[in-house]
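Duplicate of #3305? Posting structure anyway:
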């Protein structure tokens, strides 16, 4: 199956490089969407757990709330990273590793969301969730209606933009260890907010590429387990989009 590059590291060409034999037990778009919905529920379940842990601790002693959820954030972050590697290098295991990834990411997102909600003292988490679903629905509509066409130039443009963002984040992360001032990225200034808006836009465009890859894999008769892999790749982008929207809202709230 010939599928062009994607900026989503999950959807590498090698995963889709073989010609699948068509059978009755093949990947479908509806099956992938159903598994995406299930993974989303698992993310919510994990997030509710750490969210409640944080606010239960904050109710008794606000100063210790972060330390209470810190181990769960660590578990979620490390566990999520490991399951990403397992899923990417062994797609056949995605039926097991993808749901586990969703739970780990839920633990991480719940803790991060609770901390930022407390720091800003505004309902930014609910707004971020609603905006994430709104962007998802909008991009799906734009893709399905053909308003946004996934051409090779479009793919390469999104790929280049995503790689550029990753490079900026990497340089700022390493530079932080050497005293580099990263307030222009993580502060609440106009440039920082503008940068976050650009990142949100690029993350949204990555959803279009994900839709395209899932549809192409389905059309090519990919095996049934690829529904889990497709759902996994889509969740990676959705989680990135949510985090970027949450960060953007936190920056805006800090200016009030």
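Output from current build:
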């Amino acid at each position: 199956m010939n599928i062009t590059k994607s900026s989503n590291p999950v959807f590498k060409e090698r995963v889709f490089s073989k010609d699948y034999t068509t059978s009755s037990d093949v990947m479908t778009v509806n099956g992938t969407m159903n598994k995406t919905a299930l993974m989303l529920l698992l993310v919510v379940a994990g997030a509710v757990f750490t969210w409640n842990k944080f606010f239960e601790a904050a109710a008794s002693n606000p100063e210790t709330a972060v330390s209470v959820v810190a181990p769960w954030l660590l578990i979620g972050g490390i566990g999520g990273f490991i399951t990403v590697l397992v899923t990417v290098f062994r797609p056949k295991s995605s039926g097991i590793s993808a749901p586990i990834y969703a739970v780990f990411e839920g633990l991480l997102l719940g803790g991060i969301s609770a901390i930022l909600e407390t720091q800003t003292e505004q309902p930014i988490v609910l707004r971020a969730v609603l905006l994430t679903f709104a962007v998802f629905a909008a991009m799906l509509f734009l893709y399905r209606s053909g308003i946004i066409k996934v051409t090779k130039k479009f793919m390469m443009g999104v790929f280049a933009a995503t790689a550029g963002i990753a490079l900026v984040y990497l340089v700022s992360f390493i530079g932080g260890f050497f005293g580099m001032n990263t307030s222009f990225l993580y502060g609440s200034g106009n440039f920082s907010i503008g940068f976050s808006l650009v990142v949100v836009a690029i993350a949204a465009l990555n959803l279009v590429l994900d839709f395209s890859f899932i549809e192409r894999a389905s059309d090519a008769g990919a095996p049934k387990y690829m529904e889990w892999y497709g759902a996994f790749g889509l969740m990676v982008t959705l989680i990135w989009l949510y985090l970027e929207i949450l960060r953007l809202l936190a920056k805006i709230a800090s200016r009030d």
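Confirmed duplicate; merging threads. Residues 165 and 199 are 7 Å apart (CA to CA). The two ends are 52 Å apart (CA to CA).
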